[in-house]
Each structure stands twice: as C-alpha cells, then as structure tokens.
Known about the structure:
Layout: H1 11-16, H2 23-31, H3 33-57, H4 62-88, H5 100-107, H6 115-138, H7 144-172, H8 177-192
Amino acid sequence: MTAQTQAAVPPAIAGFLLAPTPPAWVEWALDNLPALLLDHANCEKKAASTAVSLLFRYPEWPPLVRRMARLAREELRHFEQVQRLLADAGIQYERVPATRYAEGLRRAMRHGEPNRLVDLLIAGALIEARSCERFALLLPSLDGPVKTLYEALVTSESRHFRQYLALAEARAGYSVSARVAELAAVEAELATAPDDRFGFHSGPPAAQALGSAINS
Length: 216
C-alpha cells in the first residue's frame, strides 16, 4: 500500500507535537499492516496497564484514581477491538518486543515526587497525542473495519491527551509548559529519527530496515 491524501490531524495535536511523523513511517506502516495491528494491540494493553499502575501508585489523589479507572477500562476495550481485527484477518496475536520509544521517554523523566508523577502524566499526553496523529495519518489509505476503528480512535486519543495534560497541570499546581517542551523534544526525536525496527511509535525506517516488520 501507499499513502494517499493526508488526513487532517486535529489542530491541538499538531500544535502539541514538536515534529510531525515522517511520511516514510506511514509508508512503512501501510506496507506492514499485520505488524502494525500486532504492535497496536500491545500498545493498547500497555496503556491499560499504565493506567492501572498509576491508580495503584497514587491512591491518595482521587481525581487521578477516577480518571485512570475509566481509562483502563477504555484501553482494554480498544485492546479487545484490535484483537478482533487480528482474528478476523487470520493473524495470530502474540507479544512483541518494545521499541525504543517508551524507554526513551522513561529515561528522560525526573525522580522524586511530585516531579515523577508530573512527568509520567506529560509522557502520557505525548504518547496519546502521537497515537492520535498516526491514526489520522493512516486513515486515508485504510478501509473496512480497520478504518472504522481508527476513525473512532482519533477522537478518543485526542480526549486522552487532554485528560493527561490537565492532570499534569493539576498535580504540578503551575504551568507545565516548560517541562512539556523538554519532554516533547525527546519524544519528537524518538518518533522521527531512523529506526531499525518497525513499531506503532517507531521512527521511520533506517536504510537496513526497509521492508522489515516486527514479526519477521
């Protein structure tokens, strides 16, 4: 497959991310749709796990507990929806290794509270924003049930982005724009620098990775 006309990325998402996803990543994803769906399923499962982890680690903050409980349920529903797509396409669900993306963001986080939680929430906003952007970029070249799901996910990921960012502001008690800019720079590098292995949040393919997939 090849990318067609570019879908409209929500303006708030485009303005939040410091760099757009390179077109080469979109082409790579469309050429490796089974790998895309497998990694996407695992991303939804990790997103639910992250929400549950935050709920357990910070039980003293009711707004976070309420939001993460709802988010965990929603992310698990998305996981089930992607699993259904895999089953309908005859693709065996399997665990796939993590790309450098999440680990790169984790390494940039501060230690000690409340800074650690603020950074975790900002990272959540960045991940949801990048996911939203990539769903939107893929839409013009998709059809059928995958397109239907990804259209819905553009809306939900945009909402999750706003929720994570609002929680970060509330926890910090001051504007987090400076810290957002610092972490956004790290995220932009991870999402746009050439990558050896494909993933939903990977960079575009390095020369030696062209045509590869995560399950090759």
